[in-house]
Fold this sequence. Notes:
Layout: E1 12-15, E2 26-29, E3 40-41, E4 54-59, H1 68-81, E5 82-93, H2 95-106, H3 117-125, H4 141-150, E6 155-159, H5 162-165, E7 181-187
Parallel strand pairs: 1-2, 1-4, 2-3, 4-5
Antiparallel strand pairs: 5-7, 6-7
Helix pairs in contact: 2-3
Amino acid sequence: MNSKSSVTKYNKLExxxxxxxxxxxxxxxxxxQSGVKLDFxxxxxxxxxxxNSLSEVxxxxxxxxxxxxxxxxxxIHIQKLLVSRGEFLFDLPDIKKWSEYLYNITHxxxxxxxxxxxxxxxxxxxxxxxxxxEHKCAWLKEDLFQxxxxxxxxxxxxxxxxxxxARGIFRDRFENPDNAHLYIKAIK
Length: 188
């Protein structure tokens, strides 16, 4: 983990960058990846940056990997790190839509689900390919928005994947509307 003074090159941070760090951002993850230089190898709420020092924080396919208490700790810390009107951009599975897929599969209507049972289960509980690849929380949009307001964000908007594509970030799910995710832009 780097000290506050040694990390000054960017005012944008990517959380949980994994094997695909986005250029132009500082990078955080709790797991080191071969060939990826992390600026912060720690939990989100342990990132040692000054308050009001970041204009943007992004997190793709990450927040659902946190338990509810850690999700809240992460939101509180992210909100503190952002400058006034700074943005937190992230996505997570749209659990309402995935619940419909699960209902169809478990009620002998698999043809109404655009994904296999394995894929639907993995969206609920993670693919579990390595330690940390489990999903530990899920949110209905209304509950998520309310919780984010309670943790200090002034404005929460549902956006689309174009927000990430415009930043040079691409994931396969961006092109498939059936791969239902909530894309969120939260403003401090």
